[in-house]
């Protein structure tokens, strides 16, 4: 009765449900108004700059240093998150221990806690008389107001991504494969490396890319602990704010457009990774 | 199952000896995980409350009832009250279009909806400065008509709508896609109107996912810092939201007051996580009873 296979030349397959035109129309209009048109302002403004102005804005040593810190610290933070995120996901899926429910619930804290709150809390903890800072100080390790502080805040902010992408994949993993590997004489470590790791690799990569993408743009949680010393601990988003405060709209836009292009490339990579993950999960059961 | 876990602490009942990690490895991994958890998650949360109450309850309450703090709380509530409903309506509408119909370009549309998540909060604020700021596209026109958007409340609302844009849609789309549309088609064939189908067939199935999306959207709307910081102008008592007020107090070395206001936002985060737990439990009980037994 319901004709499912529509005319192949039509853009939409036939359905008896109402509201397609209205809901899609509203979706496209709201999306354009709130997201697409405002975002295109960056592109339009960048195009009016001209190559010389653009290049001189993004190639000053201070801006280059901020890019280096933002991308370097984000890469390192995402790497740290892969290691500890994997341990957390493994422990949460495989083991039973007191406080497990609390750990599982609080993993999402960096998503829920406003970044400014996280920022002042981390700055307090690692400052010279904070609960951790006071022990690091005698050892000559300074974290707050140095690039190490930036790294620490980015580890905090990216923490949930790897855990939450790996956890469901690990929970889905059939135990018989591991039993078969053990039965064939593989050690536990061999089983992990040869059987489990390849299975969860796409999830790890996706989590890594998401944590990295988030860290590159992060502002609130970093700004309080970074100290914001020019050439040393200034992140790229701070350079945009600094230029805006000097009414240098063109410079701010140029710095932002470089970050936007990199973010979009990351978004495409994450989408491709997620597609790969879905196909693997679909095929592998 | 409970008694077996008492005999072998740290071991989940359904595993066979061949897939069990050696005991030292178990304890080492649990130790690393708990240490990481304590340092990176628990300590920051506890620090907020400890610092807030360092000067006692009197100072805590005084910081919260300060006129500037009250104005910041009011503005934060106002901004969330505008941004969240708008993105709720959008999220439901977009999920209906995307999860109930097949059309060309659907995946591209989903990617575009996620776009605000991959834009730095600072850039989210910058785009509105470029549009409505004094040197912006509409700047001269707005000045002529004496409309203030940047460094005023409308700018804060716009930036908040942008950063919270995807939350409801991204919760609902996968949920509604997983549910399929057979029941709704049946309702339509039986003569129900579009609204009736939505209220009586769709909504009961998505209400928990919808609640979770709204809660996340609200948490971000109230807690957004970077985007709002760019467009606000930081005018005390007028364009300061709670996170911006926290920043001002902290930069004035008024730590106890800064953490007092921050503690309200931390409470909001705890409530958000609590509701998330509740929703997840409900969703799992309804969709696949017992399938996640290993995990809890």
Features:
heterodimer; A: 285 residues; mainly alpha; MetI-like fold; 2 domains; 13 helices; globular; disordered N terminus; B: 296 residues; 14 helices; 0% strand; disordered C terminus
Verbal overview:
The complex is a heterodimer of chains A (285) and B (296). Chain A contains 13 helices and no strands. Chain A has 285 residues and is mostly helical. In chain A, helix 12 packs antiparallel against helix 13. With 296 residues, chain B is mostly helical. Classes of the chains: A mainly alpha (285), B mainly alpha (296). The interface between A and B is large, with 100 and 109 residues.
In short:
Chain A has 285 residues and is an all-alpha fold. Chain A has 13 helices and no strands.
CATH fold assignment of the largest domain in chain A: MetI-like fold
Going by helix content, strand content and strand pairing, the class of chain A is mainly alpha
**Rg of chain A, please?**
24 Å
Largest interface: A-B, 100 and 109 residues
Question: How would you sum up the global shape of chain A?
Answer: globular
Largest sheet of chain B: none
Q: How far is the first residue's CA from the last residue's CA of chain A?
A: 34 Å
Q: What is the chain-wise order of helices and strands of chain A?
A: HHHHHHHHHHHHH
Largest sheet of chain A: none
Q: What is the CATH domain class of the largest domain in chain A? A: Mainly Alpha
The counted number of beta strands of chain A is: 0
Distance between the termini of chain B: 12 Å
* Alpha plus pi helix count of chain B: 14
Indicate the multimeric state: heterodimer
């Amino acid at each position: 009765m319901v004709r499912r296979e529509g005319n192949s030349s039509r853009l939409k397959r036939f359905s008896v449900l109402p509201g397609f035109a209205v809901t899609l129309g509203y979706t496209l209009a709201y999306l354009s108004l709130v997201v697409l048109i405002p975002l295109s302002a960056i592109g339009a403004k960048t195009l009016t700059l001209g190559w010389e102005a653009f290049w001189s804005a993004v190639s000053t040593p201070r801006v280059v240093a901020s890019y280096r810190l933002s991308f370097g610290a984000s890469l390192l933070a995402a790497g740290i998150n892969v290691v500890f995120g994997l341990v957390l996901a493994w422990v949460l899926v495989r083991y039973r221990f007191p406080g497990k429910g609390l750990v599982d619930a609080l993993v999402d804290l960096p998503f829920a806690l406003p970044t400014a709150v996280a920022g002042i809390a981390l700055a307090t903890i690692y400052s010279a008389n904070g609960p951790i800072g006071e022990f690091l100080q005698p050892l000559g390790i300074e974290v707050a107001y140095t690039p190490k502080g930036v790294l620490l805040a980015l580890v905090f902010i990216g923490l949930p991504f790897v855990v939450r992408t790996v956890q469901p994949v690990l929970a889905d993993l059939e135990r018989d494969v591991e039993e078969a590997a053990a039965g064939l004489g593989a050690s536990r470590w061999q089983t992990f490396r040869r059987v489990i790791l390849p299975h969860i690799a796409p999830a790890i990569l996706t989590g890594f890319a998401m944590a990295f993408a988030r860290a590159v743009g992060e502002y609130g949680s970093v700004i309080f602990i970074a100290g914001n010393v020019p050439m040393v601990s200034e992140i790229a988003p701070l350079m945009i704010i600094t230029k805006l405060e000097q009414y240098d709209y063109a410079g701010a836009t140029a710095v932002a457009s470089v970050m936007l292009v990199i973010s979009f490339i990351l978004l495409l990579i994450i989408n491709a990774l997620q597609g790969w993950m879905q196909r693997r999960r679909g095929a592998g059961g | 199952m409970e008694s077996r876990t008492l005999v072998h602490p740290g071991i989940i009942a359904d595993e066979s000896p061949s897939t069990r990690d050696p005991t030292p490895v178990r304890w080492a991994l649990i130790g690393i995980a708990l240490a990481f958890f304590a340092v990176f998650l628990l300590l920051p949360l506890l620090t907020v409350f400890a610092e807030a109450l360092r000067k006692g309850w009197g100072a805590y309450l005084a910081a919260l009832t300060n006129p500037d703090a009250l104005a910041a709380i009011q503005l934060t509530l106002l901004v969330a009250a505008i941004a969240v409903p708008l993105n709720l309506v959008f999220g439901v509408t977009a999920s209906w279009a995307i999860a109930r119909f097949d059309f060309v370009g659907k995946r591209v549309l989903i990617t575009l909806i996620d776009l605000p998540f991959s834009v730095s909060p600072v850039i989210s604020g910058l785009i509105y400065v470029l549009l409505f700021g004094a040197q912006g596209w509409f700047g001269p026109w707005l000045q002529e008509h004496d409309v203030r958007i940047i460094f005023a409340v409308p700018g804060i609302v716009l930036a908040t709508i942008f950063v919270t844009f995807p939350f409801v849609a991204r919760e609902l789309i996968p949920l509604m896609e997983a549910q399929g549309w057979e029941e709704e088609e049946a309702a339509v064939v039986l003569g129900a109107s579009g609204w009736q189908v939505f209220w009586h067939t769709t909504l009961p199935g998505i209400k928990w996912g919808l609640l979770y999306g709204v809660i996340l959207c609200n948490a971000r709307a109230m807690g957004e810092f970077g985007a709002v910081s760019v467009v606000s102008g930081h005018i005390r008592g007028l364009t300061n939201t709670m996170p911006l007020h926290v920043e001002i107090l902290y930069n004035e070395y008024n730590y106890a007051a800064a953490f007092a206001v921050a503690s309200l936002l931390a409470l909001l985060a705890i409530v958000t996580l609590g509701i998330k737990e509740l929703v997840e439990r409900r969703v799992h009980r309804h969709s696949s009873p017992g399938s996640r037994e290993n995990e809890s």
